[in-house]
Task: inverse folding
């Protein structure tokens, strides 16, 4: 029974996402009747594309993504549609992947995350990505929101906000050496993480716990020129995030055998998205910056900071990633990057 409800929910969310992407956003009009009918929706809620025109410009003019190819990734054909990936985060986010693995869809169920992204980060993100086409910030190609309040959303049965973004694991499924691909979701390790160190293991899946304690116990063996390019790009990207007062973002690092030739991402190619070959010729690396939805100045962050300060009077666990300053988090993030490197040449 539980599995049946979960499956029904996944199908409904998948169809809501697909309908939003193929509906002309210019034809949407809010009406009183539609508002009333939408309120009683539990599963398949209506979604619209927020900031459609600006995202279209990013896709076409900056990232060189062909619109027909983009839409084809989300079509439901021959039994293939969006594939659920389960609830992979401690935040309660749900994930879907397109059938060709080109794009991921992540829900933003927490109010402070989607309001920060919509009301404060959306326009600066557009301006920054438009002027920095080779940025390592993950490419967010669409932002879907529910224009109405619904019972499904209020009861948190169905997510009402989703970001669509590139998938840097694109090509793994068709690679004969797919079992040798490795992924790391990396943050500075000298912080105390309450979501990892306070919540009992039984409340989280094994996969979620593994993601919270990711460490890279090796070195990225690259040339000095590659390192300087990577460091310069990450300095610029994290400088943008610091200006937005964002913390708790991570470096998503992928490495796979250098002999592999996986499919590339859709659109403009950059070396850290197609794969940088290691100096010893054993690996290729891909990297993006993820999860920049937590702002220090939001009410939620301020409340958490107060709670942590009170807790630390007793627990003395030290600074936490979600209560540090944006400047300090950035400096430790850059230090983490430097510590991962082994330069050659």
Result:
């Amino acid at each position: 029974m539980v599995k049946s409800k979960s499956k029904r929910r996944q199908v409904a969310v998948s169809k809501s996402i697909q309908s939003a992407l193929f509906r002309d956003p210019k034809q949407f009009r809010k009406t009183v009747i539609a508002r009333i009918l939408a309120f009683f929706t539990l599963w398949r809620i209506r979604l619209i594309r927020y900031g459609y025109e600006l995202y279209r410009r990013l896709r076409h003019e900056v990232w060189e993504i062909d619109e027909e190819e983009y839409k084809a990734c989300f079509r439901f054909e021959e039994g293939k549609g969006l594939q659920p990936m389960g609830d992979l985060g401690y935040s309660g986010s749900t994930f879907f992947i397109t059938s060709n693995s080109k794009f991921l869809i992540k829900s933003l169920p927490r109010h402070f995350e989607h309001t920060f992204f919509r009301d404060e980060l959306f326009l600066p993100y557009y301006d920054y990505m438009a002027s920095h086409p080779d940025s390592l910030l993950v490419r967010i190609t669409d932002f879907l929101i529910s224009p109405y309040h619904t019972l499904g959303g209020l009861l948190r049965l169905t997510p009402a906000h989703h970001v669509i973004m590139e998938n840097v694991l694109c090509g793994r499924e068709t690679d004969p050496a797919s079992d040798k691909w490795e992924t790391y979701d990396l943050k500075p390790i000298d912080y105390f993480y309450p979501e990892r160190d306070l919540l009992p293991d039984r409340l989280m899946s094994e996969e979620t716990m593994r993601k919270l304690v990711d460490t890279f116990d090796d070195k990225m063996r690259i040339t000095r020129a590659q390192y300087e390019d990577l460091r310069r790009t990450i300095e610029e990207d994290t400088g943008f995030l610091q200006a937005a007062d964002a913390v708790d973002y991570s470096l998503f690092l992928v490495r796979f055998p250098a002999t592999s030739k996986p499919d590339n991402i859709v659109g403009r190619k950059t070396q850290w998205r197609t794969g940088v070959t290691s100096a010893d010729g054993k690996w290729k690396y891909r990297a993006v910056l993820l999860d920049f939805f937590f702002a220090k100045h939001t009410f939620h962050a301020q409340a958490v900071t107060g709670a942590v300060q009170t807790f630390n009077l007793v627990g003395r666990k030290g600074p936490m990633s979600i209560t540090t300053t944006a400047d300090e988090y950035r400096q430790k993030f850059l230090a983490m990057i430097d510590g991962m490197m082994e330069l050659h040449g």
Remarks:
- The domain at 2-166 is CATH 3.30.800.10 (Phosphatidylinositol Phosphate Kinase II Beta).
- Confidence is low (pLDDT under 50) at residues 193-205, 299-317.
